[in-house]
Here is the input.
Amino acid sequence: MPTVHHFDPVAFSLGPLTVRWYGLMYLIGFALFLMLGKLRSRDTWRGMSSQDVDDLLFYGMIGVIVGGRLGHVIFYGPLSHYLTNPLEIFAVWKGGMASHGGILGVIVAMWWFARSRKKSFLTVADFVVPLVPLGLGAGRIGNYINGELWGRVADPALPWAMIFPQAGDSLPRHPSQLYQFALEGLLLFAILWLYSRKPRPAGTAGSLFLIGYGVLRIIGEVFREPEALYGAMPLGLSAGQWLSVPMVLIGMACFAYFWRRPARR
Here is the structure.
């Protein structure tokens, strides 16, 4: 029989204060960013100091939270609900964060940091992107503990199929949150970390992130239940897959441009 998902989303309570695993996953993601960033800043050729890492974490936290929340409101809505209840936009404690929105928020944060510090945006982006995937992976673990964003119906014979009571049925499903943790978190981190160990043409690491995240998100969404808000979409793709397609195309174009640019010079 498939395992029934039964995790308590509350990690612990201190009087009236309730601490949820999802929030702790964000803290773990930020802590990993700081730890890995300090490690990378030891290489002076990267042009980033330990203090820069501290500041980037502050800018990035704002970008993730604001971008992730606005991304959920705009991409996964329903937008009409938030237009009639605008204060709900700020109710992050009720859940609802979008990875694509968070990534856009981080891009804006990197641009603002680079501008304020008079640094190259490409240099900042190449430094930051290997620090991001483990945080994305931690968020997927949070999704899994919450029992949200469950997978499509799976063959009952699949050894790791699970029943998610939150889905409103007793059907065995793929634990797609764990698939995406492995793809968008662990695998993408390994690719970007290994690629950026040596000096590369400026902008190529950032471009590789767009390609890698987009492709791996498209693969992971094959096993994830599509958002009910959108229903059937063109070519059978989900909303998350369609949002990832431009990332892949833009990333490929940028990677080709930045890779060839030093040769032209």
